[in-house]
Amino acid sequence: VVDSNKLYVFDISDLEDPADLGSYQIGWNIETMFIYNEHLFLGTTTGMLVYSLEIKTNPTYVCRYTHITSCDPVVVQNDLAYVTLRSGGFCGSTVNRLDVVEMKDSYTTMNPIASYPMANPHGLGIDDDLLFICDGDAGLKVYDASDPLKITDHRIARFPDINATDVIPLNDYLFMIGSGGFYLYDYSDLQNIHLISTIPVAESGE
Questions:
Q1: What DSSP string describes 58-113?
Q2: What's the CA gap between 189 and 172, in Å, rounded?
Q3: Which of 4, 56, 67, 127 is paired with 73 by a 20 to 30 Å CA distance?
């Protein structure tokens, strides 16, 4: 679990009585967390932090990828990190784009290989070669990311009639938060990605 500057570790093997294993000061303005291949990837407003989970109860620092000050969710697949940068609010930037970063040498070397302009990207998700991007008022976008150098040339679908905020793809289902509530999409057939259910949630103040 992360807050703006600390990582908290809990043992939840006993869900009735989770154990607090301590906390670690790891940086500032932490926004998102993604776990992949025994590593922890933290998105912050100034870059991506990588920690090793080889010893799960004692995460250790590996590397940092630095970018301009901007809001910064991140997901990872194989040796590539996909990072969205967006403007607005406290993000401190006028940049809106998707960056692709190649990672080598056990995640100790970072090399940006591609950037793509976006409208106002928020959360994103990856499932094999499928990349899902919540692009704010531009809606939910789905790409074939098998060629990281030509991602926006291979858009599979777009759902423009929703302000999309964050997604989790899992077993051919996409769990998405956006304006108005929670949305569930079925992407088992890429030619017919479709909404199957919603849970309305009132906007703040309504």
A1: S-EEEEEEE-SS-B--EEEETTEEEEEEB-SGGG-----EEEEEEEETTTTEEEEE
A2: 9
A3: 56
